[in-house]
Structures are given as C-alpha cells and as structure tokens.
Specification:
DNA polymerase, domain 1; alpha+beta; Double Stranded RNA Binding Domain; 7 strands; hpI Integrase, Chain A; 3-stranded antiparallel beta sheet; about 425 residues
C-alpha cells in the first residue's frame, strides 16, 4: 500500500488508536481524536523503536517522506535516527518528558557510579567522620568505580564481588576487608532506600584473613624513635609533632590530624562528636609535653601545606611519611596501572627500626599506661572507647580527674624513656 494525500486525509478516527503502514517502516498513527502522526518504525541493536516524523497535516506527505529519507540514511550508517539530532525532530516538550522518564528510570535502576554518589551524599557524608567518608570516596574512585562504575547496580552479582576482592587482596588482606565493608554498606544502603531488592554481598567470605595488628614499640624503640630516628627523618615538623602527640595523648591519628585551636581550652582538648569514632564528644587532658607539641598556632594546629592552611594534613600522610622514611621497607606488590613509587629519601635519613604505623603508637601508649598500673577502665576513658550502652547514657561522671592522672603518669613514663631511663619491657595490651 502506497500512501497518497487523498488516502491520508480520508482516514477516520476509531474508538482506539490504530496504525496504517506503507511498508519499510513508514507508517501513520490515527488517534481517537483524529490526530494523525507520521512514524518511522525500525529496529536497532535488537530493539524496536518508533520515531515521530511530525503531525499531519502540518507535515505533508512529501515532507514526511523527506524526513523518512534522512532517518533511513542515519540507520543505514549504523546510527540511531532518534539520537542524530535532526532539527525537525526536536520537540522541547517531548524531550522534557523523555528526560524526566529517563531520570526516573535511572533512580529506579542506577549504575554503580550513580549509586555510589547517592551513598556518599545521603549516607557517608551525613553519618561518618570526615576522614572516614573521604576514605570511602577514595576507595570507590580507586578500586570500585573503575571496575563497576558504568554497570547497573542491579546487575552486580556475588561472583562480581568475589572477583573484585580477589583482584585487590594481592595488595593486602586489610585492603580487601575494607573494600568488602564499603561495598556491603553501599548495597545495604541501596536495599534500605528500596533501590535494590537484595545485596550481592551477603555471606561473602574474605579471600584471605586479616592479620591482627599487635605491634607495640618497646621502651628502647621509643627512646630511639624520639631521640634519634624521628629527628633525622625526612618529614615535616608538623608530621613529626603529630606522631609524637599520638603517643602523648593516646588519641586516634585522624583526631590528632584534625586538631583545631577552637577545640583547646587551657589544658583540655575537647574533640567534638562529629570527629570521634563513636560519635561522642571527648575531653583529653593536655600535659605540658602535649602543649609543647601543639604550640601556639591558631586555626588548624597541623595545616596542610597546600591551600594556605585552610584544612589540615590528612591522616594518611602520617602512614606514608613513615613508610618512605623506613629503612628496608618492603612496599606491597605492584599492580598493573597502580603506581607505588614514593618520594625518595636519602638512606642516612631513614629510620633504622621495625616498621610501625601511627595507630601502633596509640597502642604503645595504652601499653605504657598499663605498665604503670593505670586501671583498665581509666585507660578506656582516655582512649574514648565505646562504653556499655547504659553506662554511656546514665553515668554522668566524666572521669576528668582519672583521665588527667592517667595522662600525667604517661607523660612521666615517656620523659623517663626519652632520657634513657627504662627497666621493663612492654607487653601488648588489647585495644
């Protein structure tokens, strides 16, 4: 059947819309309202599509055929005619409706990249400390999104999760554990938000066990660190003071890194809940040794050298500084496309001792207090470990006196060790 002007003008509406086809994809739809629409019906990548060529009689049969020719040529060239952007095909209202529908579809079935963005904005940045959500963001950008980013979150399977963990475990079991924890949280968020029906991370085992860290520096190592190794190391004075302050205050590396003058009042440092691991405001007594390390700088005590001190040095810089300054340090196995090159340090400046991490200094400080018979409960308060639920709610005793005494005892112990006065080896204490 070949369309003619007379035939098209004589088409009558029916109770329901219907389509008349000329052949080779050319057709016209007649609505119950007698509204007539020229169509090009075609298949691309296995999908049937309908393209609007314009309304009759505004678009005559001859004009419709011209548009049909353009569309067929695009299809022959391997392009989707509706994606070409023909000027005559532009319909702002239709484009708005399509965009709105596409946006709604994406919300219902997002890519992993889009899910990660929602997770970061609606969960991580609202409920986690800055250092924690920034680490989430770093791991997502470095290890998750390059692999899964453009895939639909609903298409990620248990096999995909296992393959991802296997690909990173060669860089360390702890990294694999952190990534598993992150993607599990992200997919749990998707389930809670009714984006997905279930998580692919349920009952996924780690590809390798994570070794428990129990490194505690001995008194002789602490003496060497404070009097010889740290002074010669190729680190900024800020980083050196930060590492010592972890040992002196027993606080977490991230909390020390983010210290701000507004948190300090006389001899007390109050860490706000949004910066502590358990979300509870924590008071730390500052001994003379701690105050000496803090200095008199306003704003961030340990400002980043980038951006004129508008933010603080990232806690990850501490671990990096130790690694690059450690004699005989063995870096992790190189991964294709992943640089492990560190800034070179002269051999004579490197620290000649067993590798340690910033958190090992906190564990060491706890062990020092234990060696001086500081009560376990008082050490727990100094470290701001989570307390029993009822105790956290109803015990209004803030333990300021006990914390002050514990940190004064620790200060004296560190001063003695620095002076070379030590008699007992330290035994690791559970943290």
């Amino acid at each position: 059947m070949k369309f003619t002007d007379k035939m098209i003008s004589n088409l009558k509406p029916k109770e329901k819309h219907y389509v008349i086809r000329e052949g080779d994809g050319f057709a016209i739809r007649v609505q119950p309202t007698n509204h007539k629409i020229w169509l090009f019906i075609y298949t691309i990548i296995g999908k049937r599509r309908w393209m609007n060529l314009g309304d009759y009689p505004d678009i005559s049969l001859a004009m419709a055929r011209d548009r049909l020719t353009d569309a067929r040529k695009a299809l022959k060239d391997g392009r989707d005619p509706q994606d070409v952007g023909f000027e005559w095909h532009r319909d702002p209202e239709r484009e708005r409706r399509v965009a709105a529908q596409n946006a709604e579809d994406e919300l219902k079935n997002p890519t992993v990249k889009e899910l990660a963005k929602s997770y970061m904005e609606l969960h991580a940045k609202r409920k986690k400390r800055e250092s924690c959500w920034k680490e989430d963001e770093r791991l997502l950008n470095k290890d998750v999104l390059p692999v899964w980013g453009e895939r639909k979150a609903s298409d990620i399977t248990r096999r995909d999760v296992k393959d991802l963990l296997e690909s990173v475990v060669v860089r360390g079991p702890a990294l694999a554990a952190n990534i598993k924890k992150l993607v599990s949280k992200m997919f749990s968020f998707a389930v809670d938000e009714e984006i997905l029906e279930s998580s692919p991370c349920i009952k996924i085992a780690l590809p390798a066990p994570v070794p428990k860290r129990d490194r505690v520096l001995s008194p002789k190592e602490i003496h060497a660190l404070l009097t010889k190794e740290l002074p010669k190391a190729s680190m900024s004075s800020e980083v050196k003071r930060m590492l010592q302050l972890i040992l002196v205050t027993v606080q977490r590396p991230g909390e020390v890194a983010g210290m701000h003058r507004r948190e300090i009042d006389g001899k007390w440092w109050t860490i706000p809940g949004e910066r502590t691991k358990n979300g509870r405001t924590h008071r730390v007594y500052l001994t003379d040794l701690a105050l000496e390390l803090i200095g008199d700088r306003e704003g961030y005590i340990f400002p980043t050298p980038v951006g004129e001190g508008v933010t603080h040095i990232d806690e990850n810089a501490l671990a990096y500084a130790i690694r690059r300054n450690m004699k005989n340090y063995q870096p992790r196995r190189p991964i294709k496309g992943d640089s492990i090159k560190m800034v070179a340090v002269k051999e004579e400046k490197k620290m000649d001792m067993e590798h340690f991490t910033p958190h090992d200094l906190r564990r060491t400080a706890n062990t020092l207090m234990a060696s001086m018979k500081v009560a376990h409960e008082h050490r727990e308060r100094v470290m701001n470990h989570a307390q029993e639920k009822l105790d956290g709610i109803y015990n209004l005793h803030d333990y300021d006196d006990e914390k002050r005494q514990a940190l004064l005892v620790l200060e004296q112990k560190i001063k003695n060790i620095r002076a070379g006065i030590f008699h007992d080896d330290l035994q690791s204490q559970d943290e």
